[in-house]
């Protein structure tokens, strides 16, 4: 078929100017292959989408920010004998604890079979620890302090210490620390004496055994 502008269109033939051989000097060749081009673009789009999803899944969850709240923010002194059950990928560590906190300082002593393994002291400025060589390596003093404060300190004080993007939700059954739409720490009151705290990598159950 001849085009008035001196272009020739043939079945499955490239679109070219008349009078110049394909690929010759001065010739302009325009090739249209819609099926193959669209297929390549679709494949590229799928690969990009899969790469983005894989990257999102591969990003680790952000760590909850450290609290380091002042003991003076407690509405009332705390004194309790407790049993702490730490459950993690390596197993479970069950320790007895003595928790004491007032407006001046917090002290938490962890022991097992009558042997003191770790003592934490926090005065609002410095975290001091006395650690026995046989204390479990998975026992992090900083994380234990954060967990205690997430459970017992007022929600308003925790919210005031949170950086942008973090929120604390509080309900009748417990608390949830969230980053964006993700829940990073969940605290549930199982009953009058037991509290369960879950965060990425481990779970802590606090059982109050005796209140003086």
From TrEMBL:
Residue segments, region Disordered: 1-23
Origin: domain of life: Bacteria
Pfam families xref list: DUF3261
Annotated Basic residues bias: 1-19
InterPro entries hit by this protein: DUF3261 (IPR021675)
The name this protein goes by in its record: DUF3261 domain-containing protein
């Amino acid at each position: 078929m001849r085009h008035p502008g001196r272009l020739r269109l043939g079945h499955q033939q490239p679109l070219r100017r008349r009078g110049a051989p394909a690929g010759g000097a001065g010739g302009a060749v325009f090739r249209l292959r819609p099926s193959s081009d669209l297929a390549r673009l679709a494949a590229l789009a799928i690969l990009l989408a899969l790469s983005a999803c894989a990257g999102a899944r591969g990003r680790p969850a952000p760590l909850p920010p450290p609290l380091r709240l002042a003991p003076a923010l407690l509405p009332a002194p705390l004194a309790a004998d407790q049993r702490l059950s730490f459950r993690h990928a390596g197993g479970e560590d069950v320790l007895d604890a003595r928790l004491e906190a007032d407006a001046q300082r917090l002290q938490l002593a962890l022991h097992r079979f009558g042997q003191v393994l770790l003592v934490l002291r926090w005065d609002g400025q410095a975290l001091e620890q006395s650690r026995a060589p046989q204390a479990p390596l998975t026992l992090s003093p900083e994380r234990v302090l954060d967990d205690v404060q997430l459970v017992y300190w007022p929600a308003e004080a925790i919210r005031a210490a949170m950086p942008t993007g973090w929120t604390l939700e509080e309900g009748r059954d417990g608390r949830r620390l969230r980053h964006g739409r993700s829940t990073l720490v969940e605290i549930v009151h199982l009953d009058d004496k037991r509290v369960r705290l879950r965060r990425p990598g481990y779970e802590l159950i606090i059982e109050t055994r005796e209140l003086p």
